[in-house]
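sry for the spam today, last one i promise. struct tokens for design, 697 residues
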């Protein structure tokens, strides 16, 4: 095994960067000393418990990564790595013995990471590392900031988060180059006045400590951009000198005892994010808040606010406004919020709001709106204006219905309306084609609209604790896919029923029926006799009606078309003969005696009534089930072959029909076409004499 390792390191000896990470190594072979030119060595994420003494031979090494191992000590020889600039030793077990004093000889170090090691102290020699810019000592067991660290005057980054630090020594003031100081999750209850010397600080995190206040000297942090003071449960106020933080961009003060914002806070004109949530003592926001015109995030949730200053509406760059868990009513929402057209997220849940304020309905940039746990009893139609919404939460209110206009929120992905008084959902909910989650639980809904089958993106549907009878319980228990399939089937049935009622309104409906009757005519074959009629049963549909609620004139002509076209198909017998015998319509006359009402059945009989040297005449009788003729139409038609007119008798004989001219009355047909009175008289005669009993053919 040793020879194998020797060969391996012999191959690597000329390389400047050697990566042995994630090799499950339990030890590092002493042959490592052969890496004569190595500048970067990565042995991280192994199972090393120690480093060989030969590590000290690597005088050219600049970057050493030994993180994520089981190291319980660093050998004294590590001090020989005089060229080392970066040492990564986090996530080890260096608490077993003190850190070697030899580390103080690594004077070229600019960056050291000793986080996640449970160190309790550092050797004094650590203070010799005067070139350090970056120190990470997070997640250790330090109880005091080591004074040796405070001697490194050029330090710019110091991470001491997740320790047990109670005391910050006054020597901290020597770190005059410090820019980032991270102290979250310690036990600090006081900062010394010397922190005022840290005038280059840009970022300070002091969350989850026991601070009661910041010293007045903190006002000297004139370059501060980010300050985290969350969960300092005894902090009542900020120092008056905080008005000097004119570069401040982010201030987090969740769950403190803050009672008011400091005088002069309006000087924070660069502030982007202000978090003041969980401060129940903060019952009022000053009017000066409107001067923070760079704000993009404002969190005032859980502050017992009963009012908001109108100046909030001046925060036109605001993208998130969180006002949940306060005591605001509809009339507390500032007028002018409609001008906040950068707003993406607005949280108003757990207040006392009765209706969505009109100004809110004008914020067309909103992506998320949460109005849950209020006292809302209705939702305005103007909700349709919020077309960018992807999430709408209205749960725990008293809503009895949703407006049809909700279907216009076509970008909506989440709709939550649980725990309301809804008895139904609008059909338009099926228009929410982007909807992924729908929660309508704990309402009074008895039926889901079939239009929901169109919610093709839906992944989560909660209908529990309703009064559903449609779909039935056995369908509901089988889950979303089965529910949607059931609704899809019901939707098709409804669509077919509506289609039957509004058949003629369908696009291309006329042409589809003409094709149907043509196929039907060819399937039945040619006539055996020329006087054989075509009979078609029809029904008056809703879209057939005129203003008098009778079948309109256009429909009589359309039904006559169906009969006439079928007659032509049957008289020819073959589709190919249409090329030889093109049949053209020369005119139609119609006369009426009685009306057809909605959904009345009737029979249309189409037959040849006569012909002359040029024209042949077709009649259409519209007959009620009782045999009474309600209307009569007459049409003159001609046979054409190209531009040539073919006499009807010649055409009929060529098609193989035995023509008995005396059976047809050409004069009567021509007379009916030319005289409305003659046609009407014939209709009256038919109504009195004929009793058709023909069946549809």
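last one done:
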């Amino acid at each position: 095994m040793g020879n194998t390792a020797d060969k391996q390191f012999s191959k690597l000896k000329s390389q400047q960067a050697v990566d042995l990470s994630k090799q499950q190594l339990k030890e590092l072979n002493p042959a490592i000393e052969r890496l004569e030119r190595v500048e970067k060595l990565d042995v991280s994420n192994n199972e090393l418990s120690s480093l060989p003494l030969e590590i000290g031979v690597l005088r050219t090494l600049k970057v050493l990564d030994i993180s994520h191992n089981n190291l319980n000590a660093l050998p004294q020889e590590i001090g020989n790595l005089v060229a080392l600039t970066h040492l990564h030793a986090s996530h080890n077990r260096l608490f077993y013995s003190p850190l070697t004093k030899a580390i103080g000889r690594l004077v070229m170090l600019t960056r050291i990471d000793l986080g996640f090691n449970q160190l309790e102290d550092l050797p004094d020699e650590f203070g010799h590392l005067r070139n350090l810019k970056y120190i990470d000592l997070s997640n250790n067991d330090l109880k005091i900031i080591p004074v040796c660290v405070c001697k490194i005057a050029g330090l710019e980054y110091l991470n001491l988060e997740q320790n047990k630090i109670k005391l910050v020594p006054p020597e901290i003031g020597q770190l005059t180059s410090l820019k980032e100081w991270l102290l979250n999750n310690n036990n600090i209850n006081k900062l010394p006045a010397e922190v005022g010397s840290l005038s280059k600080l840009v970022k300070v995190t002091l969350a989850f400590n026991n601070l009661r206040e910041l010293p007045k000297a903190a006002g000297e942090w004139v370059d501060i951009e980010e300050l985290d003071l969350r969960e300092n449960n005894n902090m009542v106020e900020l120092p008056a000198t905080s008005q000097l933080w004119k570069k401040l961009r982010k201030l987090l003060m969740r769950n403190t005892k803050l009672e008011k914002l400091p005088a002069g806070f309006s000087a924070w004109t660069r502030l982007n994010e202000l978090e003041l949530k969980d401060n129940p003592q903060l019952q009022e926001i000053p009017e000066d808040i409107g001067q923070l015109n760079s704000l993009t995030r404002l969190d005032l949730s859980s502050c017992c606010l009963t009012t908001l200053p109108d100046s909030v509406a001046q925060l036109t760059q605001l993208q998130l406004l969180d006002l949940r868990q306060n005591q605001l009513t509809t009339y507390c929402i500032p007028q002018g919020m409609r001008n906040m057209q950068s707003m993406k997220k607005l949280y108003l849940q757990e207040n006392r709001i009765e209706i969505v304020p009109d100004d809110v309905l004008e914020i067309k940039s909103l992506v998320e709106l949460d109005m849950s746990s209020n006292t809302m009893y209705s939702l305005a139609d103007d909700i349709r204006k919020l077309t960018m919404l992807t999430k709408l939460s209205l749960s725990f209110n008293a809503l009895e219905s949703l407006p049809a206009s909700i279907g216009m929120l076509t970008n909506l992905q989440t709709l939550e309306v649980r725990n309301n008084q809804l008895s139904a959902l609008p059909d338009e909910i099926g228009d929410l084609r982007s909807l992924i989650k729908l929660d309508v639980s704990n309402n009074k809904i008895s039926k889901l609209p079939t239009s929901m089958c169109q919610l093709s993106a839906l992944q989560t549907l909660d209908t529990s604790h309703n009064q559903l009878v449609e779909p039935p319980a056995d369908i509901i228990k089988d889950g979303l896919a089965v529910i949607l399939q059931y609704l899809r089937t019901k939707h098709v049935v409804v669509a077919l029923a509506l289609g039957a009622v509004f058949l003629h309104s369908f696009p291309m409906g006329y042409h589809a029926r003409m094709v149907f009757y043509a196929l039907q005519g060819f399937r039945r074959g040619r006539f055996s006799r020329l006087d054989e009629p075509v009979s078609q049963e029809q029904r008056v549909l809703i879209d057939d009606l005129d203003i008098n609620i009778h079948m309109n004139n256009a429909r009589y002509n359309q039904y006559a078309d169906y009969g006439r076209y079928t007659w032509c198909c049957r008289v020819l017998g073959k589709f190919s003969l249409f090329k030889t015998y093109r049949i053209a319509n020369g005119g139609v006359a119609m006369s009426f005696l009685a009306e057809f009402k909605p959904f009345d059945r009737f029979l249309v009989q189409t037959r040849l009534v006569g012909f002359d040297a040029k024209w042949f005449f077709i009649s259409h009788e519209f007959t009620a089930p009782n045999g009474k003729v309600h209307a009569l139409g007459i049409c003159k038609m001609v046979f054409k072959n190209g531009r040539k007119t073919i006499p009807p008798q010649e055409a009929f004989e060529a098609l193989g029909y035995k023509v008995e001219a005396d059976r047809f009355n050409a004069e009567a047909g021509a007379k009916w076409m030319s005289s409305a009175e003659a046609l009407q008289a014939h209709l009256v005669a038919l109504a009195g004499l004929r009793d058709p009993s023909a069946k549809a053919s």
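The mean pLDDT is 90. ok im logging off now
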